[in-house]
Amino acid sequence: MTGTAFIHRFEPAGDAGSPPLLLLHGTGGDENDLLGLGKMISSGSALLSPRGRVLEHGMPRFFRRLAEGVFDEEDVRRRAHELGDFVAEARQRYGLAAPVAVGFSNGANIAAALLLLQPDVLAGAILLRAMVPLSDPPKADLGKKPILLLSGQADPIVPASNSARLAALLSDAGARVDHKVLPVGHQLSQADVTLSRNWISKADAKAA
């Protein structure tokens, strides 16, 4: 489906009490990539899944990078604001509450940037294999938003020091961060699904 500036998929909620999820794919993914994951994490949630608008060698991403692990931070900021505008328009169009972002890799990085640049856009986030998106982020007030950060102990792309720094950055901004390091690499595992499902059911209960 097109419109609101991003090609995207939308699936309405099966359970009005479940939080809507904003699904943000990794490099080379698209708007279909994380629909299955979203359903496994929260089966009753509305799913909003945009396709990244930047192409790297033909592969969709949410922002440009200069090299692996080196981000074009000016582009990060611009694309995060574009994504925030998309979410605001989609909420009005589909009648959604503020969503919980579920982002993998590049999608997790743009979700982290969105939290820091426009704290009101998201109700919380599940960040899978995320890195610090901005070397000099603005001072944000995340007001106890719940964030689950799942990192891979053997991740060749995200150094442990970087994910720990991201956890500290989000905590310092006022978020309630649950950071777990799993005995895996960069790819997702069954543990990611199980932990995310348990976390979102508890976060949802606290919000109710």
TrEMBL record:
<dbReference type="InterPro" id="IPR003140">
    <property type="entry name" value="PLipase/COase/thioEstase"/>
</dbReference>
<protein>
    <submittedName>
        <fullName>Alpha/beta hydrolase</fullName>
    </submittedName>
</protein>
<dbReference type="InterPro" id="IPR050565">
    <property type="entry name" value="LYPA1-2/EST-like"/>
</dbReference>
<dbReference type="InterPro" id="IPR029058">
    <property type="entry name" value="AB_hydrolase_fold"/>
</dbReference>
<dbReference type="GO" id="GO:0016787">
    <property type="term" value="F:hydrolase activity"/>
</dbReference>
<feature type="domain" description="Phospholipase/carboxylesterase/thioesterase">
    <location>
        <begin position="69"/>
        <end position="201"/>
    </location>
</feature>
<keyword id="KW-0378">Hydrolase</keyword>
<comment type="similarity">
    <text>Belongs to the AB hydrolase superfamily. AB hydrolase 2 family.</text>
</comment>
<dbReference type="Pfam" id="PF02230">
    <property type="entry name" value="Abhydrolase_2"/>
</dbReference>
